[in-house]
Amino acid sequence: MKGKKIVVVGGGKMGEVIAAGILTAGLAQPGSVTVTDIVPDRLAYLKGKYAVGTTDDNRKAVRDADIVVLAVKPQGMSDVLKELGPVVDRRKLVISIAAGIPIRFIAEHLKKGVPIVRVMPNTPALVGVGAAALAAGDTASGADLAAAREIFDALGLTVVVKEDLMDAVTGLSGSGPAYGFIMIDALSDGGVLMGLPRDVATKLAAQTLLGAAKLYLDSLKHPGELRDMVTSPGGTTIAGIHALEKYGLRSSLIHAVEAATLRSKELGKGK
């Protein structure tokens, strides 16, 4: 990765996080990273904070790049690809984080043989604990996939999946942070109902979910086994779990993932 010229097209929140992750992980020096955007104030901010190159000229920036990260919104992808098409060839690795945009659509706008890796990150990448799934196109090599994965490893956990599972990834981890925020808010409401101050209840709720997640990731024990560790016969926890099952928390979460996955498929039609 070192020595490669990396261009991040799109200097929004995720574009900034990706550039920052590359620098923090030591994958490239600031002089080898360029971020493009159409907002002058945004470019000035990025240059001042990270000392990276900045420009509003996508084609000029990408011409000499080794790795191009497309961090633009899905609705703007077509215009960006038309702009970049003449200067992106098979010597460059293209990484896209645009939700719902298939590799095939990107390839159709570029020269033949360009290696493409599609990535579905999520917003906790903003604090370095994201979850990203990667899918490699037919022309991407193992080295290309490894390079893309190295970038997103700097932002949290990564997994590799087949592209036809990307909608399911969107429904689970892409949309999942919102489900988590709802659970934190609901647990906080429960604490307030039982007399806890709001700030105390919310902090306890958030830290509890964070701790539960870390306990699983560190141990890799089945969630059911970890649940049983805190569930005594006739105790408080089983009473709470009984209420969750009675009112359908598990079923609601399963349906949420299903609904978000189906919606992702709908949005991707025609691309």
How would you characterize this protein structure?
The chain is of the alpha/beta class and 271 residues long. It folds into two domains: 161 residues, Rossmann fold; 95 residues, ProC C-terminal domain-like (ProC C-terminal domain-like fold). The chain is 52% helix and 13% strand. It is built from twelve helices and eight strands. The chain has an eight-stranded mixed sheet with strand order 3-2-1-4-5-6-7-8. Helix 8 packs across helix 9. The chain starts with 5 loop residues before the first strand and ends with a helix.
Record the SSE blueprint.
Layout: E1 6-9, H1 13-24, E2 33-36, H2 40-50, E3 53-55, H3 58-63, E4 67-70, H4 77-84, E5 93-96, H5 103-108, E6 116-120, E7 130-136, H6 142-153, E8 156-160, H7 166-174, H8 176-193, H9 198-219, H10 223-229, H11 236-246, H12 249-268
Helix pairs in contact: 7-12, 8-9
